[in-house]
Structure to design on (80 residues):
């Protein structure tokens, strides 16, 4: 299996929209850097992103979800 065909995709943007919460409010509520949250919302540099377990835990508790609700594996889409 070629791992370059797959990517970790973060659904945090969808979750925020569903709960009508801004990145800034989430950042303040869980006491975590807004830039990291914004990167997750936009799936920025997910190949190299290190996501602390403590942040995943905070997100799960805050939204009452599991890590599987926040992340999924997707087939990489080639950019033309």
């Amino acid at each position: 299996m070629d791992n370059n065909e797959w990517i970790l995709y973060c659904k945090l943007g969808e979750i925020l929209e569903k709960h009508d919460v801004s990145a800034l409010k989430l950042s303040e509520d869980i006491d975590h850097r807004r830039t990291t949250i914004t990167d997750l919302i936009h799936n920025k540099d997910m190949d190299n992103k290190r996501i602390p377990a403590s942040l995943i835990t905070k997100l799960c508790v805050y939204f009452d979800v599991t890590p599987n609700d926040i992340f999924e594996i997707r087939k990489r889409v080639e950019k033309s």
Observations:
- Strands lie at 6-10, 71-75.
- The chain has one domain: 3-75.
